[in-house]
Amino acid sequence: MTTSTTTKLTRSRHDRMLGGVCAGLAHRFGWKPRTMRLAFVASCLLPGPQFVLYLALWIVIPADDR
User: Fold this and answer.
1) Start and end of every Phage shock protein PspC N-terminal domain (predicted)?
2) Looking at residue 59, what is its pLDDT?
3) How many domains does the chain divide into?
4) Residue 15 placed within a domain
5) Which domain holds residue 42?
6) Apex 50 CA angle, 47 and 55, nearest 5
7) Contact by Cβ (8 Å): 64, 20
8) Which residue has the higher pLDDT, 66 or 63?
9) 65 or 2, which is more confident
10) What is the per-residue pLDDT across 4-63, written as a single tens digit (0 to 9) for each?
11) How is 1-66 classified by DSSP, letter by letter?
């Protein structure tokens, strides 16, 4: 029997640097927030719409109620 624990995707209010998107994604996927932030900064070195995606997630993902 397999049990899985799912967490709701929310923006963090406690461990945020800008909008809480990276901290919320890190909490959802079981990563450390610092690791997620470093991955985001590293991805910004590649061409693509990273900043637009971050802003869209900031608008779409609800804030944490805690």
Assistant:
1) 8-63
2) 95
3) 1
4) no
5) 21-60
6) 155
7) yes
8) 63
9) 65
10) 556 789 998 888 888 999 999 999 999 999 999 999 999 999 999 999 999 999 999 999
11) ----------B-SSS-SSSSHHHHHHHHHT--HHHHHHHHHHHTTSSS-HHHHHHHHHHHSPBP--
- Phi/psi region, residue 24 (left: phi>0; alpha: psi -120 to 50; beta: rest), is alpha
| Structure-token pair, residue 60 | 């779409």
Neighbours of 64 (CB within 10 A): 18
- Rounded CA separation 59/46 (Å): 23
Block residue for tokens 């470093």: 38
